[in-house]
UniProtKB/TrEMBL annotation:
Keyword tRNA processing: no
Taxonomy, superkingdom: Eukaryota
InterPro entries named in the record: Mog1 (IPR007681), Mog1/PsbP_a/b/a-sand (IPR016123)
One Pfam family in the UniProt entry: Mog1
Entry keywords, A to Z: Protein transport, Transport
Protein name per UniProt: Uncharacterized protein
Species of the source: Austropuccinia psidii MF-1
GO CC annotation terms, alphabetical: nucleus
One annotated GO biological process: protein import into nucleus
GO molecular function: guanyl-nucleotide exchange factor activity; small GTPase binding
Endpoints of the signal sequence: none
Protein family per UniProt: Belongs to the MOG1 family.
Length: 221
């Protein structure tokens, strides 16, 4: 069986400000197309079509987004800080909107033991907190194909809320996303090779999320 450690290597992101272990065969998408300054994007050169995105974003406040609250049939918490569940859901559904997904669903959300960094500034002794993790699915049509020919895309997402870091009032949201499309509809046939790919990518994602380390906080200045 393949050892996922052997499939990964350390990548320097944003000029070395962030270090992370990612699948070693990934190619920097900026070599092929323009990538926004706030993103690092990597794509797999093989047939898996795996893509990985790391984004530095101004921290979001779902409680102040009436459209999000309405779509999710929820109400504002009335608290100073949005609940971590709402924040990572917001990023997931924002991705679905950007993908023009016809449907989207969340399978699981995992929380670290310490969530205090969601409500307290990181302080002067900065450290990379543990992320919140999400696994979900989106149905996405590519290349102007009809919705009936949409691909099922498996999404793994990690969120680091960096309170007091950056120019925004709420701080910064650092988001890692793995996207794995099922281009052959293998999920319908229980294709064993695709099931193996799902397990492998899931392990690589968790390894990446665990390994991410912020080494230069001036990135967020």
């Amino acid at each position: 069986m393949t050892n996922e450690d052997d499939d990964a290597k350390e990548f320097d992101l944003f000029g070395g400000s962030i270090k992370i272990s990612l699948p070693k065969n990934l190619v920097d998408a900026s070599q092929m197309r323009q990538v926004p300054d706030e993103q690092e994007v990597f794509v797999s050169p093989d047939s898996s079509n795996l893509s990985v995105i790391v984004e530095v974003l101004e921290a979001v406040d779902p409680d102040n987004d009436s459209e999000f609250l309405q779509l999710n049939q929820t109400q504002s918490s009335g608290l100073k800080d949005s609940h971590p569940t709402s924040v990572i859901k917001y990023h997931f559904y924002s991705l679905a909107h950007d993908n023009s997904a016809t449907t989207s669903s969340i399978n699981s959300i995992e929380f670290p033991a310490d969530l205090s960094y969601f409500t307290k500034d990181l302080g002067t002794i900065k450290h990379t907190p543990e992320p919140i993790l999400l696994h979900g699915l989106q149905l996405v049509s590519k290349f102007n194909r009809p919705d009936s020919e949409a691909d099922q895309v498996y999404i793994w997402m990690a969120l680091w809320r960096l309170r007091g870091i950056g120019s925004g009032d709420l701080g910064t949201d650092l988001v890692l996303t793995f996207n794995l499309p099922d281009l052959s509809n293998a999920h319908l046939t229980q294709d064993q090779s695709f099931q193996h790919s799902l397990q492998r990518v899931s392990k690589l994602f968790h390894m990446a999320a665990k390994s991410l380390s912020i080494v230069d906080w001036l990135l967020f200045a």
